[in-house]
UniProtKB/TrEMBL annotation:
The chain crosses the membrane at residues 98-121, 133-154, 318-339, 351-384, 818-840, 846-865, 886-907, 1030-1047, 1068-1094, 1100-1120. PANTHER family: CALCIUM-TRANSPORTING ATPASE (PTHR24093:SF369), CATION TRANSPORTING ATPASE (PTHR24093). It comes from Paramecium primaurelia. The keyword Transport applies. The lineage of its organism: Eukaryota, Sar, Alveolata, Ciliophora, Intramacronucleata. CDD domains: P-type_ATPase_Ca_PMCA-like. It is an enzyme of class 7 (translocase). The keyword Oxidoreductase does not apply. This is P-type sodium-transporting ATPase4. Its main location: membrane. It is a multi-pass membrane protein. GO terms for cellular component: endomembrane system; plasma membrane.
Length: 1180
């Protein structure tokens, strides 16, 4: 609430509005009830209530003057009594707040802690020569976190600022003219008060619920609030009372339509279609019709989407796996170390560093196990998909909605403007027989429906006889516009036809007359009355019938009349609005002035000749039936939720395929009946519809209240109804909201489509809300997660495909990364247990986790969707993301890769080729070549050395003052890699020259230690810090295995052909070669920085061997496809209540708070608004 608000929230609560407040004589709830009666009217309930109260009491009770307006001397007291019209101010989030929100993520926090520990331990325990670069590994993890969190923060920050600019521009236009102290003044809509007299004019938005004081041809468009597509007539109370009384006298009270009696109430959030006048403000703020919806929109939404919950579950499981593995590794290594020290009975102080190293390995395992690339991968996947969806006319405002739509099992769709085109079209014509009009064809021929000599009568009755127009923009009755559009599609200009047949007299349409007529002046001085109107009225006035078949005019006998009436019933059963066309040849002396009490002229009441019966309706979008069929095939149930009556709604539902032929269990129910059966929505804690609990967490914290969580009052009844509920007719905002609430409670992922303000609460409540970009109101678009730029229901099917594609792609990436992580952890565990070393260094694993996984996510997450995705049912909201089949491939592939890498580790020094290079003259010169070649011809025992000396004639070289050799050089010792000792004498090792054909051809072991506990390559490494070629092989084979696993991960349903669709996946074709090129650069030039052999890494022959080993990943997966996943263990499933969860696993969640609604049109620049004029003026 604004700081200058004279009324505190506590003061507001003191008075519930049921009794008059202070000097005012009318209670707030009384005024509210009048507005609500109008919104839910059946006949003229609000007229009855206003008549009961009386205009005089309203004027005096509100302390206002219908002519002079308010005096503004009692503003504070007036606001205390009736409230104000100001909306809560939404403060934009700052960049730091958004960044901290992205950082408040389980994975991110664990990575930060692991990175800090890694930096501290690495720097404090590293040698002097290595300490300068020891911090790089931990710092690189922090860099990954910073990049991921800032990417999210920048995106959200841009959305916040973009909305603020758009909001400021739109807000400036919201001004109204009021009368205060007898003078007109312009004020902002938020400043109007109860008792204000407001000027009404065409096109304006009604700021609050009000009572009409003056009216001149006043009509309003209430489709945004009630779904009613027809213009609603408004009038002053006296005229409304007269019309009501007239219908009662005629006995038509029970048969009259909802709007046959004009209403004196203007509802907030609606728009004036025509006319002008004045209104008195009765209800403002959250109590108004639009305000009730706004209050629902301020509630909190679930903390996370279904995918986020699945990732939370798997992150916890991976974290536990990593922690257990780390503890196991450290325990195994420490146990082995203790046993070895006990057997050798030695202990040196430097061994403390060795023990610390074991703990470093344990921390490394935790870091490796956690898929730190996952948050960025998911963000990249969603960002790519949302950009591509924009090309499919889906503007995704909340990135997470993209993946959520993939799991949608229910779609609750509005009818008007969503399933239908929100414009009337000529569908049927009856003359002799019912003729079907091709409503979707842009070009038609009138001769296809009427012979040439008959067309004149049709054009005169349907087109010339009218007041609507198409240019410069459509204006007038939607029924008339439908006829004009039909004649234009027949390549005729309606304006030319009206000029061709001038009218001398016009009898305009009115709700009482239910017809309109004209007297046309024809050639030869002839005069013709043409008439069109309600079918039952015009047909009753017809005494003849003009047949198009033979052009004859025949008397209207009883049999013919019954035939016409039957055709009218047939059209009405298909939810068509029927009108009759008729004409009458008249003389110059015809009486054109006499009329009855309904305004029907005598000339119109008899002797008319029937031309045709026309059937008109708001037709389906052409693509809707197939889209609904695809949804049905995809396991998604589509429900229609509309403000229309049951008969119309049922007909449309059958036409579009929501109700299928022969479905005896289908339920079509009206909203009030639905609410009555299920008991409506109540607070979970208070068990009442209205309770003191706060709607959002911010208010709850500020006022120390509980946050309200909605639930269905009678869940047992809801469970009986909803499985077969296909259509909810005459639905109000609370009906739609209740339906969505109940579906979500039962674990369904619910999507809601709509275009009106009345759809907003359900759009906000749903997992994914779709708003129409063209016909949708501003409130609806604010509440929605996705905006359909083309208002096309078919775009929802594309959104489902993209959503499922995102989910599948994330599963593909998970399969790839978890396989790599499992292999990494497995190798680290085995290396620690058997060799007391890491097989893959942390910096190498970082390359896999950060660079390769980031690019890998782009490669796997950018595969375009296909219609095959719709041939399966949606995934369960609570299913574990790792299915049995995925488990089979992840574990099976990991075992194969671990086996291949271990063969290279433990047997590579017996078969992998080695080649000479410049290092033979430097790092591996002389006797040190034994650490490069396993077949080195060096003499490493005293007997070999003595024999070689005798055969070659080279004398043994005695090393003075040295009596023993050790793996670690100390005083009085020499390195075992340099000397051989015998009987307290030590001699230099000698080697034969290599011929590189029969010797020095096999790579030497790069294992630091032997499985038995002795020191191997460590003796050389600690002296030179030169990584081995052997473990460069190991690293490269590991990467090649992952690279080929990219191909395996493209499919996870046992598909044999993993190359299917690869040519269409351009990103994959580019990224995988790029990763291979980066790997070449890493191996060739990485050197000591990443623990690889320094002299250009590997030879070309060694690269080919690595690629060959990498292919085993594909071959192994091929055979895994034939193993039944039933043999795999059940991964498990977690039940998560979406209304209560507090998990936030990845920083990609759209802001679902009240401030989150402030992010509209997030991907658009202000000067490229695709909504165009529809954003400024919503017209149906």
């Amino acid at each position: 609430m604004a700081d200058d608000d004279p009324m505190t929230q506590q003061e507001q609560l003191k008075d519930d509005g049921t009794e008059p407040y202070g000097k005012f004589r009318v209670a707030k709830q009384t005024l509210c009830s009048i507005a609500y009666m109008c919104q839910e009217r059946v006949f003229a309930e609000e007229v009855d209530k206003l008549e009961e109260i009386g205009e005089k009491l309203i004027e005096e009770g509100l302390c206002t003057d219908f002519k002079q307006g308010l005096t503004m001397q009692d503003q504070a007291e007036r606001e205390r009594a009736f409230g104000h019209n100001r909306k809560p101010k939404i403060e934009p989030k700052g960049y730091c707040e958004l960044w901290l929100g992205a950082l408040n993520d389980f994975t991110m926090k664990v990575l930060c802690v692991a990175a800090v520990i890694s930096i501290i331990v690495d720097v404090t325990t590293a040698d002097e020569s290595y300490r300068q670069i020891a911090w790089i590994e931990g710092f690189a993890i922090l860099v990954a976190v910073i990049i991921s969190t800032n990417a999210n923060a920048v995106n959200d920050y841009q959305k916040e600022r973009q909305f603020q600019k758009l909001n400021e521009v739109a807000d400036e236009r919201k001004r109204v003219t009021v009368v205060r102290n007898g003078k007109k003044c312009d004020i902002h809509m938020s400043e109007v008060l109860v008792g204000d007299v407001v000027q009404i004019f065409e096109g304006m938005e009604i700021p609050a619920d009000g009572f009409v004081l003056e009216a001149s041809d006043l009509t309003s468009d209430e489709s945004a609030m009630t779904g009613e597509t027809d213009p609603i007539k408004k009038n002053v109370l006296s005229e409304c009372i007269n019309k009501r009384n007239q219908l009662k006298e005629e006995g038509a009270q029970n048969t009259a339509g909802h709007h046959d009696v004009p209403s004196p109430i203007m509802m907030s959030g609606t728009r004036v279609l025509s006319g002008e006048g004045k209104m008195l403000i009765l209800v403002v703020g959250d109590s108004s019709c639009a305000g009730k919806i706004a209050a629902l929109l301020r509630q909190d939404e679930p903390e996370a989407t279904p995918l986020q919950m699945k990732l939370t579950a798997i992150a916890e499981d991976i974290g536990k796996f990593g922690l257990i593995s780390a503890i196991l590794i450290v325990c195994v290594m420490c146990l082995r170390f203790g046993i070895e020290r006990g057997i050798n009975d030695d202990w040196e102080n430097y061994m403390v560093v060795t023990i610390i190293g074991y703990f470093i390995i344990g921390i490394t395992v935790v870091v490796v196990a956690i898929p730190e690339g996952l948050p960025l991968a998911v963000t990249l996947s969603l960002a790519y998909s949302t950009k591509q969806m924009l090309q499919d006319q889906n503007l995704v405002r909340k990135m997470a909605a993209c993946e959520t739509m993939g799991g949608a099992s229910m779609i609750c769709s509005d009818k008007t403007g969503t399933l239908t085109q929100n414009k009337m079209s000529l569908v049927n014509v009856w003359n002799d027989d019912i003729i079907e009009i091709d409503t979707y064809s842009e070009k038609q021929q009138l001769t296809s429906y009427f012979p040439q000599n008959f067309q004149e009568f049709f054009i005169q009755c349907a087109v010339v006889n009218g007041s609507a127009m198409l240019r410069p923009e459509p204006k007038g009755s939607k029924t008339e516009i439908a006829l004009l559009e039909f004649i234009e599609r027949c390549s005729m200009n309606y304006e030319e036809q009206r000029e061709k047949y001038p009218a001398s007299t016009k009898f305009p349409f009115s709700s009482q007359r239910k017809r309109m007529s004209m007297v046309l002046e024809l050639d030869g001085g002839r005069r013709r009355l043409v008439c069109k109107g309600a079918s039952e009225m015009v047909l009753a006035a017809c005494s003849q019938y003009h047949s198009k078949g033979n052009g004859s005019i025949v008397p209207m006998n009883q049999e013919l009349k019954q035939k016409v009436e039957k055709s009218i019933e047939t059209m009405a059963g298909r939810a068509l609005r029927t009108i009759c066309l008729a004409y009458k040849e008249i003389s110059a002396r015809e009486d054109l002035t006499t009329k009855d009490n309904k305004g029907v002229y005598a000339v119109e009441q008899s002797d008319l000749t029937l031309v045709a019966v026309l059937g008109i309706k708001d037709i389906l979008r052409q693509e809707v039936p197939r889209a609904i069929q695809l949804c049905r095939r995809a396991g998604i149930k589509v429900r229609m939720v509309t403000g229309d009556n049951k008969m119309t709604a049922r007909a449309i539902a059958k036409e579009c395929g929501i109700i299928t032929p022969g479905d005896d269990q289908s339920i079509v129910m009206e909203g009030p009946d639905f609410i009555a059966k299920i008991g409506g929505v109540v607070c979970t804690k208070c068990r009442t519809a209205v309770c003191p609990c706060a709607r959002d967490s911010t208010t709850a914290k500020k006022e120390n209240k509980d946050v309200r969580v909605d639930t269905i009052a009678n869940p047992q009844e809801f469970d009986k109804i909803y499985p077969h509920l296909d259509v909810l007719a005459r639905s109000r905002p609370e009906d739609k909201y209740a339906l969505v609430t109940g579906l979500i409670e039962r674990g369904h992922v619910v999507a809601v489509t709509g275009d009106g303000t009345n759809d907003a609460p359900a759009l906000k409540k749903a997992d994914v809300g779709f708003a129409m970009g063209i016909a949708g109101t501003e409130v609806a678009r604010e509440a929605a997660a996705i905006i359909l730029l083309d208002d096309n229901f078919n775009s929802i099917v594309k959104a489902v495909m993209w959503g499922r594609n995102v989910y599948d792609n994330i599963k593909k990436f998970l399969r790839f990364q978890l396989t790599a992580n499992l292999v990494s952890v497995g190798l680290t565990l085995i290396g620690a247990a058997v060799l007391s070393q890491e097989i893959l260094k942390p910096i190498q694993l970082l390359w896999v986790n950060l660079i390769m996984d980031t690019l890998g996510s782009l490669a796997l997450a950018t595969e375009p969707p296909t219609e095959k995705l719709l041939y399966r049912k949606p995934h369960d909201r609570n299913e574990y993301i790792i299915s049995k089949k995925m488990f089979k491939f992840i574990v099976g592939t990991a075992i194969i890769q671990i086996a291949v890498v271990l063969i290279i580790v433990f047997a590579g020094d017996s078969f992998l080729p080695e080649y000479p290079d410049e290092y033979d003259l430097t790092a591996f010169r002389g006797i040190k070549k034994r650490y490069k070649y396993s077949d080195h011809l060096c003499k490493t025992t005293y007997d070999e050395l003595k024999k070689y000396s005798e055969e070659s004639g080279r004398p043994l070289t005695l090393i003075p003052d040295i009596t023993e050799s050790r793996d670690v050089k100390k005083d009085g010792t020499c390195l075992s890699s340099e000397c051989v000792c015998h009987e307290k004498k030590c001699y230099e090792i000698m080697c034969e020259e290599c011929d590189f054909e029969t010797s020095c051809t096999i790579i030497a072991s790069g294992r630091l230690n032997t499985p038995e506990g002795g020191r191997d390559y460590a003796v050389f490494f600690e002296d030179s810090h030169e990584p081995s070629r052997h473990f460069t092989y190991v690293f490269n084979v590991f990467i090649m295995l992952q690279l080929f696993n990219f191909l395996n991960s493209r499919r996870f349903n046992d598909e044999i052909n993993i190359f299917e669709g690869l040519s269409k996946h351009s990103a994959f074709m580019i990224i995988v070669p790029v990763i291979f090129c980066i790997q070449i650069l890493m191996v060739t030039f990485g050197s000591k920085a990443i623990g690889l052999y320094g002299n250009f890494g590997l030879k070309i022959q060694q690269w080919l061997i690595g690629i060959g080993f990498g292919c085993i990943s594909i071959i192994g997966c091929f055979f895994l496809k034939f193993i039944k996943e039933d043999m795999c263990c059940e991964c498990g499933s977690k039940e998560i209540n979406p209304m209560e969860t507090e998990h936030k696993i990845i920083a990609l969640k759209g802001d679902h708070s009240s401030g989150g609604l402030a992010r509209r049109y997030s991907s658009l620049r202000h000067d490229q608004n695709p909504f165009g004029a529809a954003h400024q003026q919503h017209q149906h």
